Every structure is written in structure tokens, then in C-alpha cells.
Amino acid sequence: MSRIGAWIEPHPQGIYVPAADAWIDPSQPVPRALVTHGHADHARGGHGAVLATPETLAIMETRYGPQSGQSVAYGETVSLGDVTARFVPAGHVLGSAQIVLEHKGERIVVSGDYKRRSDPTCAPFEPVPCDIFVTEATFGLPVFRHPDTGAEVDRLLEALHANPDRCVLVGAYALGKAQRLIAELRLRGHDDPIYIHGAMERLCTLYQELGVDLGELVSATAVSKEQLRGRIVMCPPGAINDRWSRRLPDPITAMASGWMRVRQRARQRNVELPLVVSDHADWDELTATVKELAPQELWVTHGREEALVHWCMTRQIKARALALVGYEDEDD
């Protein structure tokens, strides 16, 4: 009797599906790639053909130039040899998808990165019962329990209002996190212009072109220092302490990341206002998802693999760590 999932092959550089002659999120160029979302550790340029959601393809084209391939809308099924593939929302960033593969009477869901929290900039995670669930484990330790997102955004606004002569400089990943934070601020009635680093302009414009309302965004370098007092300025995490930030008016340095739960990380980055806002599932959400889907096997692709595998084993759930290479935390 053949083992479950024998028709897909985990390799260090990605997951290969021989019957479809396709790779999922490969770390190097391949003839055919199924891409879960647009972050650079999952979506790389140079593939012969890319299958992804329309939004992910648009993100890849913004980053890498024109892509050869096929857009697959949520819920649409495509046939790849003897394998059918369907893309369903992952709730990670705009266009992010889980890839649902069916072959030989088995269903395997490759989730990519995902979260279970609400996000005004992307479709929510859609649970799909399956035989094998391939999960991330970026925050796969019990210490990682993310607080309420709204409460963290309220802390940001409180700091802004309490310091009208300063600006709040928020480090946020340029794809997904920045746009989500802006949208959350808008939901809380913050209608003032938000000032952004030049590295964020293309992706923020793309989000707006794809229907995500971010309100008025202004280049932070297009205005005077005085105009930035009492304002929110957003930049990539790496720009918080570089020369670019020196022209800002006594900035309160903030960073939006699940890693801000770790105080040492905040201190290392000279972050005055750590905001625990993550686009990944925390420990409770990871384990709740496994319980909900009830797969026969759990495959853990990257992150804190050992703890989640151990948790499964104590509950008689078969689990294995795949140890894929090339995946980063992206300052989540």
C-alpha cells in the first residue's frame, strides 16, 4: 500500500509535483511554478510559466517585470496533467492563496503563509479539509500569541496624539504589512495624509489600482520637516535608522511586526514603540487550524518546526518537518 501523499516531493528548493510537472513556491527558476503569494521568498522571477492569482501576478510584474503564465482566480480549478489545482484565500496579503491539489483520490493543501485575523486589504483564510495540510510555522512557539490588532493600532494613534510636535515613524514591510496598517488606521477614522517612503510608493499605488482604498498618501520627501510634525510616516524596517530618517522631526520609532513580541528584537532595532501586528498565524491559530482541518498528516515547511511537530505527535497526528530553504521572516 503506497503512503499518503507519495505523489508530491518536498525538496530543499520547494515542493515538486511530478504528475503536474510543476513546483510550488520554488526558490530558483523552474519551467512551471505555482506561486502562493507575492513575497520575495515565495515569488521569484525567471520562471518559464507562473500560475497565481491575478493580484499575485500583478505584484510579481511590479517587482520583476512581465510574467509568462496564467492567472487563476479564487475558486477556479485548473488541470495540470492528472492533477487538479485550485487557489483559495490564505488571508496573508493581497492575492495570497492556498493551493489545493487533488490526485489519486487524495487532497493536499499547500497553505503558503497565512493568518486567521481579519485584514481589510485581503480575502480571509478559507479552511479546506484535506488529507495532508502543508503549513508554515513562522510563529510556531507557544510564546507567540498576538494581541488584538485594533488595540495595537490604537496604541499607535495614542502616541501620535500625545506628541503633536513629533512624528511617528513606523517600520512596516512594504508588501502587505504597510497597506494593512494604513487600512486599519483609516478604519479608526484617521483621515489625515499618511507619509510614505519612496520604496513603498509602487506597491501602495498597485493596491489602490486593485481596489484597496488607502486614502491620501504623500511622499515623505516631498514635504518639509515642519509639515511632518504630528503625522504618521511609514517606511521599510531597514530605513528606520538610516540617513533618510534623520530629516524627520524627532520621530517616535515604531515597528509593526509579530517579532516585536520579543523585547530583545525591539531593543536591537532601537524601536521605541513596538507594535505586535503580524501577517502570520500565531501559536493558537496554527494549532486551531490543524484541529479544524483534521488532516491525516501535517507537513511543516518553515519556521519553528519542532514545537508544532511535537504538539501534533502528542495528539496522535502524524507530522513531519520539511526543512525547505530560502524562506525568511521578512520583518513580519
TrEMBL record:
Record flagged with keyword Hydrolase: yes
Annotated signal peptide: none
InterPro entries per record: MBL, Metallo-B-lactamas, RibonucZ/Hydroxyglut_hydro, Xnuc_lig_assoc
Highest taxon of source: Bacteria
Keyword Nuclease: yes
Protein EC: 3.1.-.-
UniProt keywords, alphabetically: Exonuclease, Hydrolase, Ligase, Nuclease
A GO MF term: exonuclease activity
Positions of the Metallo-beta-lactamase domain: 10-173
A Pfam cross-reference name: Lactamase_B
Enzyme class: hydrolase
Name of the protein: Ligase-associated DNA damage response exonuclease
